[in-house]
Amino acid sequence: MNETDEIRGTAQGTAPVPLSVLDLVTVGAGRTATEALRTSVEISRLAESRGYHRYWVAEHHSMPGVASSSPAVILAHLAAHTTRIRLGSGGVMLPNHAPLVIAEQFGTLEAMAPGRVDLGLGRAPGTDGATAAALRRTDRLNEGADDFPEQLAELTRFLDDDFPSGHRYARIHAVPGPIQSTSPGGVQSPHRPPVWLLGSSGFSARLAGSLGLPFAFAHHFSAQNTIPALDLYRQFFRPSAVLDAPYALIGVSALATDDEREARRQVLAAALNMVRLRTGRPGLVPTPEEAEAYEFSPMEREFIDSWNSNVIHGTADEVRSGLDDLQKRTGADELMLTSHAHSGELRLRSYELIADAYGLPRA
After folding, report:
1. How far apart are alpha carbons 279 and 266 in whole angstroms?
2. At residue 135, what are phi and psi to the nearest 5 degrees?
3. How do strand 195-199 and strand 215-217 relate by DSSP bridges?
4. With the C-alpha atoms ordered 179, 180, 186, 191, is the resulting torsion angle positive or negative?
5. What is the pLDDT of residues 27-80, one digit of tens each?
6. Which distant-in-sequence residues (6+ apart) come within 8 Å of 131 by Cβ?
7. Angle of the 316-330 helix axis to the 226-236 helix axis, nearest 10
8. 343: Cβ–Cβ under 8 A, 6 or more apart, which residues?
């Protein structure tokens, strides 16, 4: 299997494109991170058994309702509970980490789950400025984002173990990695985690295109920029050893329930959580009852209506119709679904209902 084969998925059932999962390891009020992580295992196993193509975990920090601060640790756990589904980061925020550390982490994951690990990279901090400063031990936060192309190039060289002779890192090797195949008696896996660039604006779209890399766009929180960013990606795309044609997935917030009213209740609770996050009051995902009793200000109500207009929710048939329409409008090569609800059981049920709506296979 070459790297292109590891990137491109195959649509299952009647889905127009491959379907995948993005997990933030959501923690609801009255629940624990342990319960949230157990739910992630259950969803990953369901996704594998029903033909979802990949399962990604997003890096976020200092958010009580999001227990995905350490994607590599979570992915190792999921690798132990799955056998076939692709696992990856959606993404690791590159400016938060030394490139060598990421190369080592994902080399280790690749050794654990050969041929099914993706390395998705973002240039945002995945948190507020103060937390980013604590992560990076510097107050010069713009420097990390501005240096993203250089950091990406360094990480790629660590993954490939191909720093030129005379480079200050030429004698430094990410292990597990290619150096093991050139050591006496060494045998190394032929796989290397494919690198994806993530974005919510045009910067990473242009960079991914110019480097011939696959691109993942955060439609679920930047819907107004989706089509312009995908257009830029396709416009700037140059064939590479990785891809001979553009390949773009989009993250989509989608929640299917057996009862349409329950979908509205859960989506309102998730939106209240976003209101609190955007106003500097991050917390656990509230219950639907708390959200229904909350007195939204006119400004908050406006935000809620705008936010929820991009959440595809309702019955399974309604969600399928919404996903079909979104794929047609954007031309996305893959849809990566993320569900936000107070209840882990409802999130699990949502992925099952969507799989049923598209007639995805049962392992």
Report:
1. 20
2. -65, -40
3. parallel
4. negative
5. 999 999 999 999 999 999 999 999 999 999 999 999 999 999 999 999 999 999
6. 61, 62, 125
7. 40
8. 28, 266
